[in-house]
Amino acid sequence: MTAAVPVRRAVLRSRASWLLFPAAAVLLVFFCYPLAVILLRSFSEPAFGLSNYVSVLGDEVQIRVVLRTLRTALIITVATLVVAYPYAYAMSRVGRRARGLLTLLVLMPFWTSVMARNFAWYVLEQRGGVLEKLFDAIGIHGVSLLGSVTGVTVAMVQVMLPFMVLPLQNTMRGIDRSLLHAAGSLGARGPVAFVRVYLPLSMPGVLAGVSVVFIMSLGFYITPALLGTPQQALAAQVIGTRVNDLLDFAGAGALGAVLLVLTLIVLAVLSRLAAPLGTSTAGGADRG
Amino acid sequence: MPRRIPALLSAATILLAAGCAVSEGGENSLVFVSYGQGAYQAGQRSAVLNPYTEKTGTTVTIDGPSSMAKLKAMVEAGKVAWDVVDTEASSAAQACGTLVEPVDMGPLASAFPDGTLTPCGVPDAFFGLTLMYNANVYGDHPPATLADFFDRGRFPGRRIVYGNDPSVGTLEAALLADGVPKDRLYPLDVRRALSVYDRIRPELTISDTYGDQQQRMAGAQADLALIVSARAYSLLKAGATNWKVVPGVPIPVTWDVLVVPKGSRRSEQAKDLIRFASEPAQSAAFAERAGVGPANSAAKPRYPEIGRALDIWGDDKEDLRVLSDVKWWAANRVRVVKTWSDWKTG
């Protein structure tokens, strides 16, 4: 992560490997081992074979839930990007003080308990709640977001904002503004310079933010469980049902594995997209 | 020297992990598992567990929330930290012999309502699935039958049911509303029950927890509700008096049981606690405090005013009660829960 002097990098690399051990040990015990058990069980119960995967992939309802999860994650990602991009741009342009304030605002959700935040949205979105009254006041009646996909999306965009804003503004702060002046002097007007010069330069940040937000949205549990309804359940909730109500640990594992594979595919595609930009998807965060 | 550090760190991690393993308590103590803070668990604490400690000197710790999934994981791992678990009757009957142990009730075996005691599950609380309406909405012409709940034409408005477990009478209510006689409910026609729910689907909220259902009812997010009596009781006690019970409609009755997880190291003591809890005095005291129906038929709880409308063992409910067929549910539970959960997420 740290920008070490290139000459010393090789030296650092050989010495640095043991620094990874604490993290590796924790991951091994608390992530790799349980994951291996879950995967093993998804193949070995009730009998060795692919029966759990056949039942997940051959089940119309499960497929619908997986597609709904992908669609919802995509909508959330796009909405978050639309909200975060101008915000991050503003952050990269303002002075030190204002940037501190903007960072504080975007990090606020991090410091609030997940439950408190979700219940706040619950109160805002409920029938007769603040949002409905607000829409009533401007002449749009009967807006009840609670228990709808829209309601879940709005709340999740708020949760996801920091994960999009931070990599974006890191990348943006590293963009050399004189390139825009150069573009201007060569005849590109503001919007053209932005689209042809600035936007491509900010792509590493966009890809980093998009991949984090999309992947996190795929596995989100609390917000959809609290603000949505089972009628629009996402994959994580269906996994929850399989474990808690059906005691079908193997089937839940299979569905989890499907979600994991989808996540890996998304990661692979995004890092492919990022490759020509000369940076990995995580690279956007490196520039600060 | 640096070479040893990885090994040391790994060893430390493993030790740490081992140290975190479930603490199993001492010899003269039991772990009782209920559903978390609320009138129900508080009632168990004051009406059953504290008197048991006084009588026997055994300390009882409460853990929770109760979860068959967690219990299954414990039994499979051979590390059972729970001694007595409060759970739903049919899942206990289904898990009898595999996840939970038989409990010998001795002479107390005949104290329970007919057909409710199973080899592994000892009833401790009875609930009725109660039809309620928001009087602020239907004050002038309140619903009068179960069928009204499923009639969007005559009673437009938001409906709410608890949907995490369909075995609380949810399907039975739909079939009774659709005209199935109560002595011919089982085997349940699940498809037919769901088609009855299809009629109200656009106006149906399905809550995944009872807390959510209560919250939505108290916050006027629903107009009609099918809700288990104990939850209705705490809702009314909390002051949501605009919610009224529809009198004179059939009431599907289900119950919770106490079980002993297989592999509990203090299973004899655990069973002793269960027998103690089933005696008339404790059963009545718990029922009064939690607003549930007592499990022991000889128990005569005295409910406050609001509890009486919800008292499923009341004389006025004699012809309205429809007791769940726990054997049918145990045999069909997995299939029905799957069908129900597909229907609700579909």
What distinguishing features does this structure have?
heterodimer; A: 288 residues; mainly alpha; MetI-like fold; 2 domains; 75% helix; disordered N terminus; disordered C terminus; B: 346 residues; alpha/beta; D-Maltodextrin-Binding Protein, domain 2; eleven-stranded mixed sheet; 11 strands
Protein model, in words:
- The complex is a heterodimer of chains A (288) and B (346).
- Chain A is an all-alpha fold.
- Chain A has helices at 6-16, 21-44, 51-57, 60-93, 96-111, 114-125, 130-137, 149-174, 178-185, 190-218, 222-227, 235-244, 249-274.
- In chain A, helix 4 crosses helix 10 (190-218).
- The model of chain A is unreliable at 1-5 and 280-288 (pLDDT under 50).
- Chain B has helices at residues 4-19, 39-56, 68-77, 89-94, 135-138, 146-149, 170-177, 190-198, 210-218, 229-237, 267-277, 280-290, 305-308, 326-345, and strands spanning 29-33, 59-63, 84-88, 100-101, 122-134, 159-162, 204-207, 224-228, 243-245, 251-261, 321-323.
- In chain B, strands 1, 2, 3, 4, 5, 6, 7, 8, 9, 10 and 11 form an 11-stranded mixed β-sheet that branches.
- The relative contact order of chain B is 0.19.
- Mean pLDDT of chain B is 90; it is low at 5-24.
- Chains A and B meet through helix 2, helix 4 and helix 12 of A and helix 1, helix 3, strand 7 and helix 14 of B.
- Chain A: Residues 66-271 form the ABC transmembrane type-1 domain.
- Chain A: It comes from Amycolatopsis minnesotensis.
- Chain A: Belongs to the binding-protein-dependent transport system permease family. CysTW subfamily.
- Chain A: It is found in: Cell membrane.
